[in-house]
Every structure is written in C-alpha cells, then in structure tokens.
C-alpha cells in the first residue's frame, strides 16, 4: 500500500512519561498501518498502551519518538488537519453534559465539529437510528445506562461524518444487540472507504476486525 493511501500509519512510535525526575515507558516502539476500508483493533489489558496509542493518533498526546500520520498528515505538525479527518470516542466518564438530553449533547458537539446548523437535526436522527438511540434522545445524559452512554459516545464521534473513527472500548457495557448495531455501523463506514481504529480488551470483538495488534505492558506481543 502506498504511504499516501494509508489512513493511519505509526512508525516506531513510543511514549515516555516523565515526572519528578522519573520516567515510565507507556508505549514501546509501535508500528502499524491501517488502510481505507479497514477495521483494526488494539487488544490488551488495562495499562497495556492501547489508550496511549489512540491518544497519539487523535493528537491528544505527542509521541516521544517515532512518526505518526493520519490521512497522510503528521499528528504533531498538522494536528488541525488530522482533527478534521477523525471522530474520537475515548470513553464516557465526565465526557457529557449530564443535565442536557442526549439530543442536546449531540447538537452541542455537532456544532463544535462545524456541522452546518440546518443539517444537525438530520445528522442526530441518522446516527441515533443507526445505533438504536432514538428512544433516548429526550433523556438527560445522567439518566442513561452505561451501555446507552457508550453508544452515545460513538454517535458523537460519528456525528460529523469523519473518514476515520478512533474509539476506545466502544463495546464496554454494551449488550449483545447494541454490539451488533455498532459492528454494522462500522461495517457501513468501511464499505464506503472509511477506517476504524479501536481498542478493546475483548478478543472476541477483535476477531471481527481486519487486523489485530496485541499489546501488553506497552509492548507489541505476538
């Protein structure tokens, strides 16, 4: 695959956190390529480096070493372009306005993503229907179950129609029917040339992906 055709490319990317004169390696040199039309999974237990890798791709954390590109753009030198190309869900804790309804939360984040105002209601209804959230749109976020919040977080990542989705544990707390809805939503996007990079601790969910990278202790495992 040509370099400029890669949706996501990590070349020997590593991350070391330093504090009070001490250092801890959160991610050892990691290389991977995810192309358009592919779903890739990072698999491993808590603390394995999955979330760190996703945050680097999402431009939320700068790598200590190596090189990372998204949609052909460097995550460090061209973060604004990268952010326009991706939709991100890194969990639900403290990530919503609890007093606002699910619809109002999605409308707020759609506005932040520069979705045209006239298109926002249709965009909300579309992702809600796709992820089985229609019945929850008028419910305050604080009253939603963990599974509904997980799907709402994915809906937020999808609301602007990004080419690339970056998702941390999208299946966590989601029931069987909800997981099926998520898998179908991801498949629709990859069928149109979109890309999904997700992290999960569940090998069964990873088995449905096109490629799997196993991490443990910040290092890639066989």
Question: Can you put this structure into words, describing what you see?
Answer:
With 222 residues, the chain is an alpha/beta fold. It has one domain (3-221): Rossmann fold (3-Layer(aba) Sandwich), CATH 3.40.50. It contains seven helices and ten strands. It has helices spanning 50-57, 79-85, 102-112, 120-130, 146-158, 176-191, 203-206; strands spanning 8-19, 22-34, 39-43, 65-70, 73-74, 86-89, 164-168, 195-200, 211-216, 219-221. It has a six-stranded mixed sheet with strand order 6-7-8-3-9-10, sandwiched between helices. Strands 2-1-4-5 form a four-stranded antiparallel sheet.
Q: CATH homologous superfamily name? A: P-loop containing nucleotide triphosphate hydrolases
- The termini sit apart by 23 Å
Shape: globular
Gyration radius, rounded = 17 Å
Architecture (CATH level 2) name: 3-Layer(aba) Sandwich
The average pLDDT score comes to 94
Taking strands numbered 1, 2, ... along the chain, how are they ordered across the largest sheet?
6-7-8-3-9-10
Number of helices: 7
Structural topology:
Blueprint: E1 8-19, E2 22-34, E3 39-43, H1 50-57, E4 65-70, E5 73-74, H2 79-85, E6 86-89, H3 102-112, H4 120-130, H5 146-158, E7 164-168, H6 176-191, E8 195-200, H7 203-206, E9 211-216, E10 219-221
Helix pairs in contact: 3-4
Short key terms for the protein model shown above:
222 residues; alpha/beta; Rossmann fold; 6-stranded mixed sheet; 4-stranded antiparallel sheet; 7 helices; 10 strands
């Amino acid at each position: 695959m040509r370099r400029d055709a890669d949706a996501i490319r990590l070349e020997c990317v590593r991350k070391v956190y330093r504090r009070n004169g001490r250092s801890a390696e959160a991610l050892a040199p990691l290389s991977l390529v995810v192309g358009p039309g592919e779903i890739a999974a990072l698999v491993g237990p808590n603390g394995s480096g999955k979330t760190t890798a996703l945050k680097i791709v999402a431009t939320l954390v700068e790598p200590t070493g190596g090189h990372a590109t998204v949609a052909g753009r460097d995550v460090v030198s061209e973060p604004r372009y990268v952010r326009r190309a991706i939709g991100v869900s890194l969990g639900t804790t403290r990530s919503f306005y609890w007093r606002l309804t699910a619809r109002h939360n999605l409308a707020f984040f759609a506005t932040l993503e520069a979705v045209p105002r006239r298109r926002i209601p249709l965009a909300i209804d579309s992702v809600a229907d796709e992820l089985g959230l229609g019945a929850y749109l008028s419910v305050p976020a604080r009253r939603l179950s963990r599974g509904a919040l997980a799907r709402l977080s994915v809906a937020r990542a999808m609301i602007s129609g990004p080419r690339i989705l970056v998702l941390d544990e999208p299946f966590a707390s989601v029931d069987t029917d909800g997981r099926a809805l998520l898998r179908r939503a991801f498949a629709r996007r990859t069928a149109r040339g979109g890309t999904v990079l997700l992290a999960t601790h569940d090998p069964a969910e990873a088995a449905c992906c096109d490629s799997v990278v196993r991490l443990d202790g910040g290092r890639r495992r066989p």
